[in-house]
Design goal:
This protein is an alpha+beta fold and 367 residues long. The protein has helices spanning 2-7, 69-81, 112-134, 153-167, 253-263, 272-282, 336-342; strands spanning 21-27, 35-37, 59-64, 87-90, 139-144, 147-149, 184-188, 191-194, 201-205, 235-244, 248-252, 288-292, 296-300, 303-304, 319-320, 324-325, 347-350, 363-366. Strands 2, 3, 4, 5, 7, 8, 9, 10, 11, 12 and 18 form an eleven-stranded mixed sheet that branches. Helix 3 (112-134) runs antiparallel to helix 5 (253-263).
């Protein structure tokens, strides 16, 4: 039980991708506009504000323990090179959280370190929701401090925002480029399932940023892409009813209110990602939208593996020769020197030599 709980906050270093493979046609931003299939009903509104300094949200935050200056250094560099700004939500040491503040003691690990890790993670994410409610923030995105994303993150979010507005049934121009009728947008996860009561999907075909199937790692169910008729160069946005891992997600103001209400009244304690997944699944009034393959994942840097996480246990002598990020074909972290030297004209390297080279623009469909 101890190991399975830890996996929800950190993932093992199981396989290391091969060296970065340079693909000369892949620049830091998309050069061509996508083709759009209008057979479905396009949403109202525009995604143009996604390209601002807060990615179309009112605020962006990163969760960071104050003593992990190294992680904040790396995050600051990556975010600056992909042109967005952020504020900090301080991570929480679980052993500073007293039992009387927890909704339940049932289901907590018995080992002190595992218990403290899960409680600290839970409290930090609730502090994010509390910050939104306290400061009356309309929408906010949060990322963990070891998160990684594609250098063309804003291009990806522009497509995602179109899908989010479609799934939230925007009929008039919304205040947010992501639509106004949602509670949670799940951008970085290790499992997300589609709501069986809503089979609509926004489909992005011929997407050069999707990882090959053999380089995807998830810890629970994900949409069966091949069964649904999609190839490995396709990404979908859908209404979610469950999920695991919180590498990155956004909350609306009302979504943050619902998180605080629900998570502080559960009968059994769960790691916060499991708790939020349960809320997406069991609260009919909590509207969750997810993307697969995910847009954000956790980076494992070269060097001492003990630097990876403040949650897991690592051999202090273990050294990782090469950094990698699961599920992110074109890693910002692995292209930092390239981006610093060449900016938006940088030819972005893929992590994997078997990453296919795609021709032509992305194709967008409303299904």
């Amino acid at each position: 039980m101890f190991v399975s709980l830890i996996l929800y906050c950190t993932r093992p270093d199981q396989r290391i991708p091969s060296i970065i493979h340079s693909t000369s046609s892949n620049t830091a931003s998309s050069d061509s506009a996508p083709e759009t299939d209008l057979r479905g009903k396009p949403p109202a509104g525009s995604s143009e504000h996604v390209r601002n300094s807060t990615l179309g949200f009112e605020r962006v935050f990163v969760i960071n323990l104050p003593e992990r200056h190294d992680k904040l250094d790396a995050f600051s560099l990556a975010s600056s090179l992909t042109d967005f700004e952020y504020d900090i939500i301080e991570g929480v040491k679980g052993d500073t959280v007293v039992n009387k503040t927890l909704p339940s003691l049932e289901n907590l690990p018995t080992k002190p370190k595992a218990r403290a890790n899960i409680i600290g993670c839970w409290r930090a994410h609730l502090n994010f929701a509390q910050k939104i409610v306290r400061d009356r923030i309309s929408t906010a995105l949060v990322l963990e401090d070891d998160s990684d994303w594609d250098p063309a993150f804003k291009d990806q979010l522009t497509d995602f925002a179109t899908g989010s507005r479609y799934l939230s049934s925007a009929t008039t121009k919304p205040h947010s480029p992501y639509g106004d009728d949602w509670d949670l947008l799940w951008l970085g996860h290790c499992s997300a399932q589609q709501d069986p009561a809503d089979d609509r999907r926004f489909v992005i075909e011929n997407d050069l940023t999707t990882p090959p199937g053999n380089h995807r790692l998830n810890f629970n169910e994900v949409p069966p892409m091949n069964k649904l008729g999609y190839d490995n160069s396709t990404r979908i946005v859908f209404r979610a009813h469950d999920g695991v891992c919180l590498y990155s997600y956004a909350l609306s103001y009302r979504g943050a209110q619902k998180i605080l209400r629900w998570q502080n009244n559960v009968k059994k304690f769960h790691p916060i990602d499991i708790g939020i997944g349960n809320q997406c699944k069991n609260d009919a009034n909590f509207k969750c939208i997810a993307v697969f393959p995910q847009l954000v994942d956790s980076h494992k840097s070269a060097g001492r593996q003990s630097r990876d996480s403040d949650i897991g246990s690592f051999d202090p002598k273990a050294i990782r020769e090469k950094g990698f990020t699961w599920n992110i074909a074109r890693s910002t972290r692995l292209n930092i020197d390239n981006l610093m030297a060449n900016g938006k004209e940088a030819k972005i390297g893929n992590q994997w030599e078997d990453q296919p080279v795609l021709e032509g623009p992305r194709r967008l469909k409303f299904e």
